[in-house]
Amino acid sequence: MNIRKCLKFGLVLALIMPFGANTLSAQSDSDSALEVNSIEERYKDSFKIGAAVEPYQLEGEQGEILKHHYNSITAENVMKPESLQPEEGNFNWDEADKIVDFANENDMDLRFHTLVWHNQVPEWFFLDEEDNPMVDETDPKQREENKNLLLERLETHIKTIVERYKDDVDAWDVVNEAIDDEGLRESEWYQITGTEYIKTAFETARHYGGEDAKLYINDYNTEIEPKRTHLYDLVNNMLNKGVPIDGVGHQAHIQLDWPTIQETKESIEMFANLGLDTQITELDVSLYGWPPTPAYPSYDDIPDSAFEEQADRYNELFALYEELETEISNVTFWGIADDHTWLDDRAEEHNDGVGKDAPFVFDTDYNVKPAYWEIIDFDTPTKEEVEGGELPNTATNNFMFTLIGAGMVLIAGSLLLFRRGKVNHSS
Predict the structure, then answer these.
(1) Looking at the domain assignment, is residue 4 inside a domain?
(2) Alpha carbons 392 and 380: distance in angstroms, whole number
């Protein structure tokens, strides 16, 4: 580079340093999730930021990350029916209590997941008093008795849980995944009771949780037709019958290019128009389409380009969430970091036991990924802050960076003068 170009380069750097160095320095200060700005602090005026957890993640580095970045948690598994009541009348509270206590100790919201689901529910729920499968019954009278018995068991299950945790839980996933692509899911709940199990679940949760309890119906692929309309029709029908549903949980198990942002927006607004709250309950952004094949064999095999594409996806997503912040009260990731995700099981299942996904903003070593920077972004000073002299302590108003920029100009200028003097002397 000749001296004239050096001077131009120095001038450019001097001009852009105050505006560009803040982001660069902030992104290079530390890659650790514990040493970067808090996600929940970034969105404190918009919605809660949550993570799904297992009890073992409440300790050590993962526990500290939870405290730093999140103000809401969800039990990934230990509050599901088979975990809380594996045998009729025998409730196991130990693991669930750990999550409740952690939330209380750290002033976090707690989402309860879930009171009713077609998976991870013990078999005894669906056996009659003679231990016969209820779904196999053909006698109309016995079918009615089975229906009443199942609803009674459901009421007892919900009553016992809600009475124990009603002062601890901020949002209840009352019914999970009642809809499939064809309409109402043909689960054992539905085959035995019709839609009565949904009505009973919400009414029981309201009765024992009180008017302050926030009750949600939760599902996946809520952005996509025809499932979106099937869920809307169910919820609207229940509301018309007086069933106390307060909100819809959109799981948001999504991919790099599916569903579209427009589909996501339309879905949230569709249910908001019913007067319902929205919570994003199980967010993760898979690197793969469906089915997840081929998958990267290991984390080290994932190219930077995949993480950059994921970062763009998160950027679009959180921009939408902020746009709709009056409709959204909580955004929960279905995990903390890439070291623990249910998507790994799916990748392995479809790739002969070898596959790794990476759906979150923190990597397997709890360092930030490009997606983190996209959702955290950096506040630009407002006009009032500029006029009032209340600028944040960034490179824009930091004396050190001003000094560096001026120094670059002086050095480049001195070199240019020296060169000119040398030329004049030789002539």
Answers:
(1) no
(2) 9
- pLDDT single digits (tens) 254-285: 999 999 999 999 999 999 999 999 999 999 99
> What token pair was written down for 189?
């709940």
Q: How many domains does the chain have?
A: 1
pLDDT single digits (tens) 93-111? 999 999 999 999 999 999 9
| 394 domain-assigned | no
pTM, entire model: 0.84
402 domain residue, yes or no: no
Q: What domain range is 275 assigned to?
A: 39-377
* From 40, 76, 177, 374, active-site residue: 177
Give tens-digit pLDDT for 322-361: 999 999 999 999 999 999 999 999 999 999 999 999 999 9
Q: Report the CATH number that the domain containing residue 285 is assigned in CATH.
A: 3.20.20.80
In a domain, 399, yes or no: no
Please identify which of the residues 282, 309, 349, 374 carries the catalytic annotation.
282
40 is catalytic: no
- Can 177 be counted among the known catalytic residues? yes
Q: What per-residue confidence (pLDDT) applies to 377? A: 85
